[in-house]
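Assess this:
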Amino acid sequence: MKIQKGWERLGKLFSRQARPREYWQHKWEVTWKNTLVTAAILAGVTFVALLYNRVSEGTVNIVMFYTVALIFIPRFTEGYVPGIVAAMVSVGCVNYLFTYPYSRLDFTREGYPVTFVCMLLIAVMVSAVTSYTKEQSRILAEQEKQLREAEKEKIRANLLRAVSHDLRTPLTGIIGASSSYLENEAALSAEEKRNMVRHIGTDASWLLNMVENLLTVTRIQEGNAGVNKTMEVVEEVLSGAAARIRKRIPQIQVSVRVPEEFVMLPMDAMLIEQVLVNLMENAHFHAHSKRPIELYTINGEDEVTFCVRDYGTGIPPRRLETIFDGEALNGGDSDSHKGMGIGLSICKTIIIAHGGRIWAENHETGAQISFSLPRQAAEGA
């Protein structure tokens, strides 16, 4: 059964049903680019052959020069016409310029029909193989592009779900606190009023932070996942992220272990700090860590790994594979704090834009989220 299917696929590959008329027209199309490239390569080979013929006579070696040209021409042209024309021109050049009687075309000499047929077969076969390889490369590139687009659409859909979920909690809190304040202003004590205003301010700050994160993702995606990388000191990025999270959440406990050696990486420092802040914020609110959150790096030959480790409740095993896809962690869990889905989706987008990878795992007493950034361009930057 498998053999039969293989033959069916092979038949479809070479059948006219699998190749529409436009495909074959393209293979036999004559273009200015093909003409100029073919003429340039043949002219260069002829010039080299003339120089070689001055120091050493040998028609066989001259034929080899043109054979190499027949291999290169299909590589830089499209279709079958350039290779076939090049084969005919090559045989004519060898006959006219390098074979006695010189400066005359004489195909009656013994062996020339064989030479012509062989060079023509080489041209056709190389053109066919090269065209097939180019087409397969184009198909693979198109498939990869479609996969990337599908991944982007998936991220967008998950972000929209996470946004609609996570907006409700702070907005409900703001509306409820403001309504209670207005309706019961006379009955509330000064301390109760301050607490309500404090809660409103906290929720409003979180909403502002979420909007900034979403704007960051939009900027990266509109720029085809491009980021402005400069060489940054890893120790300064870690210290900057720790300072930002302590300013945002004064009660958070973070233990930073800077690398012993001096390490620089190509990155957008603000975005990587934002990733670390998001990870530490999620660890603080969701893990309920009993010990300080640890922030450190692991140096490898080709990449540097950043780790945020907590000692709390861990991540449900079923969420480890999808936790970065924009799905809120709470969906049915006891932890109802806002922002988990959006924060980790943003982290994934930023790390992928840097050419890195990000993953989550549990350990014996908690969870750890890590991401790696490549050292590429560190030496040559």
About this structure: Confidence is low (pLDDT under 50) at residues 12-18, 328-340.
